[in-house]
Design goal:
1 helix; disordered N terminus; Jelly Rolls
């Protein structure tokens, strides 16, 4: 039965890919958020390379509609800039959370085609100071 369920999931036309930084991101650094399916519980820390934080494409499709959240605004003059990477290279899919009020940012304009075997990761570059708590990113994958 589980194999049948798994097969049906692979055939779904649209899926949400989720990344999580766990407790916090390192300030003034480049962080790659962990795939939610790799580390489903708390205590997760962001890593420094996309290889350990990427989804592996098992079918062709399009990625789009990036939404990123943090639990607490960063503070005046501080930001976290998110970029979707495919095979270790940046794409046009980006968004930035900044300032003393914002806790969410999105890119619903850009999209990228991906192929079987591509690795999709989410990179975050943080400013020198500020609170960078509980970062979460999600991206829509639409298979063909």
């Amino acid at each position: 039965m589980s194999q049948h369920y798994s097969d049906r999931l692979r055939r779904l036309p649209c899926k949400t890919l989720v990344w999580n930084a766990g407790a916090s991101l390192v300030a003034n650094a480049t962080n790659y958020l962990h795939c939610y399916t790799t580390f489903p519980t708390g205590g997760v820390q962001a890593v420094e390379t996309h290889v350990y934080a990427s989804f592996l494409c098992t079918r062709r499709g399009t990625i789009k509609n990036l939404v990123c959240y943090v639990s607490t605004a960063h503070g005046a003059g501080n930001s976290s800039a998110y970029t979707v990477y495919v095979n270790g290279l940046p794409t046009a899919i980006t968004c930035t959370i900044s300032g003393a009020v914002d806790t969410k940012a999105l890119d619903i304009t850009n999209f990228v085609a991906v192929s079987i075997g591509n690795r999709i990761s989410l990179r975050c570059v943080t400013s020198a100071a500020g609170l960078f708590l509980n970062a979460l990113g999600q991206l829509e994958f639409e298979g063909v």
